[in-house]
């Protein structure tokens, strides 16, 4: 008999890493999260958590506290860049709960990150190690050794690389990999309530679409903040970093012919940041022996389906369930996790890229053609095709037993 798993190593204490850590600790595993930062914290930005992601957080026992930090979306809408013409995309709120069992939330990332960190530390006080930068990985058929910057070697039974788009674990297992610049630059920023025009303060997510660019905004912290993301096609900035500062003047220039509402939002941003959007093809595999990857480390996705963080949550729950159900066969458990997640996440990576092209279509330059285009691309049937399979997925119920087919679980 293979001895039971004693210690699981997780590289990265982001949303996905903490989700997986909490799910594993709750199932009786001992976890060590190796985080390179010397102070734990998340970049101050918002993200959307659809019902499939909220289901994962509820499975972690966070549903009650989540209500206190999240803004429940009443719906989503599309607006035209030049005229402001509005189309309802779909209802959320009670409709999301009725159809999928859970609400659709808009969350300030540091709030959720802090909540998950507190729960991890409460259950296992020494679970998170800061200032632990992974530089190398070795493994055999009985365990894994992670080398940290400075020379320390940490032993574990399993290694999970949840260390993001620039994953050191992925590099150690599979090499550097190639990333291609998409030709798009993203702006992001937060707008305080007092600088948000009153007519834009509804609890809805808004997608402005236009030729060569789009804007997404939605409220956070019950309307105290507005999250702003603007994507524009340009080739003169290729730095892939969430912490590079830009200026309001430069952002306004990128959207200078856009509707007054977009201009007003940009002018209210506290500090705009800009980063180049790079794309990566879905990986054929992300598990080697007793090591695997999670979230952006293995399936980084462009932010056009609002599913990047949600995929990391789903990964964390499915992986923890696979290991709990097959603890005596850890390599088979990791292979099962990969098999369950690969088709779905690959479809999301490709679907996100397709959505970006849809948001930026040249037909949107002409108001008459734009109206026809939106009616064709965002009618009820097309919206259902693009989102129903996303929101209805249940990471807590997919069959994690080794040896079963995954064909119906994507």
UniProtKB/TrEMBL annotation:
Keywords of this entry: FAD, Flavoprotein, Monooxygenase, Oxidoreductase
GO MF annotation list: FAD binding; monooxygenase activity
Signal peptide interval: none
UniProt-listed InterPro entries: FAD-bd, FAD-dep_Monooxygenase_BioMet, FAD/NAD-bd_sf
Keyword Nucleotide-binding: no
Names of required cofactors: FAD
SUPFAM superfamilies linked to this entry: FAD-linked reductases, C-terminal domain, FAD/NAD(P)-binding domain
FAD-binding domain ranges (all copies): 8-349
A matching Pfam family: FAD_binding_3
Highest taxon listed in the record's lineage: Bacteria
Coiled-coil annotated residue ranges, if any: none
Protein's name in the database: FAD-dependent monooxygenase
């Amino acid at each position: 008999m293979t001895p039971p798993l004693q210690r699981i190593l997780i590289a990265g204490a982001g949303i996905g890493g903490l989700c997986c850590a909490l799910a594993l600790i709750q199932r009786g595993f001992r976890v060590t999260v190796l985080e390179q930062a010397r102070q734990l914290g998340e970049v101050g930005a918002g993200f959307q958590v659809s019902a499939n992601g909220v289901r994962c957080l509820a499975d972690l026992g966070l549903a009650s506290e989540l209500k206190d930090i999240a803004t429940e979306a009443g719906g989503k809408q599309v607006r035209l860049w030049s005229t402001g013409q509005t189309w309802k995309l779909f209802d959320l709120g009670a409709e999301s709960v009725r159809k999928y069992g859970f609400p659709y939330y808009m969350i300030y990332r540091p709030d959720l990150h802090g909540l998950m960190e507190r729960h991890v530390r409460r259950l296992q006080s020494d679970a998170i190690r800061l200032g632990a930068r992974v530089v190398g990985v070795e493994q055999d058929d009985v365990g894994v050794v992670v080398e940290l910057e400075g020379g320390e070697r940490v032993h574990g039974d399993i290694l999970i690389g949840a260390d993001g788009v620039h994953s050191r674990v992925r590099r150690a297992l599979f090499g550097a990999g190639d990333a291609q610049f998409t030709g798009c630059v993203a702006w992001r920023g937060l707008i305080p309530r007092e600088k948000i025009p009153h007519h834009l303060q509804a609890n809805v997510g808004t997608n402005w679409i236009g030729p060569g660019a789009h804007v997404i905004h939605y409220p956070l912290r019950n309307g105290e903040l507005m999250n702003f993301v603007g994507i524009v096609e340009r080739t003169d900035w290729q730095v892939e970093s969430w912490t590079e500062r830009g200026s309001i003047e430069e952002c306004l220039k990128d959207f200078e012919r856009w509707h007054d509402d977009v201009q007003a939002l940009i002018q209210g941003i506290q500090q705009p940041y800009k980063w180049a959007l790079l794309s990566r093809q879905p990986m054929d595999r992300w598990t080697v022996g007793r090591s695997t990857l999670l979230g952006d480390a293995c399936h980084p996705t462009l932010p056009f389906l609002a599913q990047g963080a949600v995929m990391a949550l789903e990964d964390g729950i499915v992986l923890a369930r696979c290991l709990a159900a097959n603890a005596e066969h850890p390599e088979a458990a990791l292979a099962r996790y990969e098999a369950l997640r690969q088709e779905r996440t690959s479809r999301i990576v490709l679907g996100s890229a397709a959505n970006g092209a849809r948001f930026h279509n040249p037909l949107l330059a002409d108001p008459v053609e734009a109206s026809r285009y939106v009616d064709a691309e965002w009618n009820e049937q097309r919206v259902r095709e693009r989102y129903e399979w996303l929101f209805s997925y249940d990471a807590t119920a997919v069959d994690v037993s080794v040896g079963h087919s995954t064909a119906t679980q994507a």
